[in-house]
């Protein structure tokens, strides 16, 4: 990957982007193949898309190549990311990975809930384009208005990246870019790989399978697309910190936006309008 002098043949930001594109479109095509052939149909929980893969693809590519790539390259040019030490020590690497998850959660929650879902702004900022999909075809993860894409995809990735001081560690940047692509594709794919895990088990085994189900489900973002008032940053691969703190996690909010009653608390009858 490096030349005789240890230098990359292309800028690291461009390399990270290209690897992300290979992962995104490779995994996206695999999900599309599953959709068309019925492979993994036991895990397909949602199938509500009206647009085909090739109808979604052009906007996705425009967002990626004309918004994400220039943003990544600009950070490297300005010396704000993708530059510095060639390798991180193991502790810094782990801490930076954790911080990326937390930072992504916070930045996405702020932009997603308070800007993109602000009354009257969902259309102006193009977020309604993304909500025209049902989160049941993987490639729709990046099908959105251009301003929406910058606020919801680019900033939650690049703002934390500037703050974790990851230097020019190639493995770190390629891993972050790849995991981000896979997470977005999965939670928009309509598949949920947690559905076959054992349920209702007690003891340590029950807690283990419960935790595994929580980590592997795509339910949170599916509920966001269905209800719009839940899980603004809580999704596959996200720690869901802000949604938990602010009570907007999908399993804490009723369909009409009311908090779910606690155990032993009577449910109130819905008002009729």
UniProtKB/TrEMBL annotation:
Descriptive protein name: Fatty acid hydroxylase
Coiled coil: none
Renumbered residue ranges of the record's region Disordered: 254-273
Domain of life of the organism encoding this protein: Bacteria
GO MF entries: iron ion binding; oxidoreductase activity
Source organism: Methylocella silvestris (strain DSM 15510 / CIP 108128 / LMG 27833 / NCIMB 13906 / BL2)
Location in or out of the cell: Membrane
GO cellular component: membrane
């Amino acid at each position: 990957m490096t030349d005789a002098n240890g230098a990359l043949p292309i800028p690291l930001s461009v390399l990270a982007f290209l690897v992300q594109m290979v992962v995104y479109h490779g995994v996206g095509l695999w999900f599309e193949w599953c959709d068309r052939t019925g492979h993994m149909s036991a895990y397909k929980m949602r199938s509500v898309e009206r647009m085909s893969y090739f109808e979604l693809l052009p906007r996705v590519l425009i967002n990626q190549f004309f918004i994400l790539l220039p943003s990544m390259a600009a950070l490297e040019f300005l010396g704000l990311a993708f530059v510095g030490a060639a390798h991180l020590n193991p502790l810094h690497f782990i801490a930076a990975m954790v911080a990326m998850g937390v930072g992504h959660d916070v930045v996405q929650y702020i932009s997603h809930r308070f800007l993109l879902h602000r009354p009257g702004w969902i259309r102006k900022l193009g977020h309604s384009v993304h909500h025209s999909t049902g989160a049941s075809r993987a490639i729709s993860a990046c099908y959105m208005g251009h301003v929406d894409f910058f606020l919801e995809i680019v900033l939650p990735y690049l703002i934390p990246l500037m703050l974790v001081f990851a230097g020019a560690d190639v493995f770190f940047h390629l891993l972050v870019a790849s995991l981000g692509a896979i997470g977005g594709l999965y939670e928009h794919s309509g598949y949920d790989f947690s559905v076959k895990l054992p349920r209702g088990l007690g003891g340590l085994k029950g807690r283990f399978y419960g935790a595994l189900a929580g980590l592997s489900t795509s339910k949170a973002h599916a509920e966001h697309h269905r209800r719009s008032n839940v899980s603004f940053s809580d999704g596959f691969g996200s720690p869901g910190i802000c949604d938990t703190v602010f009570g907007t996690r999908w399993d804490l909010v009723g369909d009409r936006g009311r908090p779910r009653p606690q155990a032993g608390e009577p449910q109130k009858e819905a008002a009729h309008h």
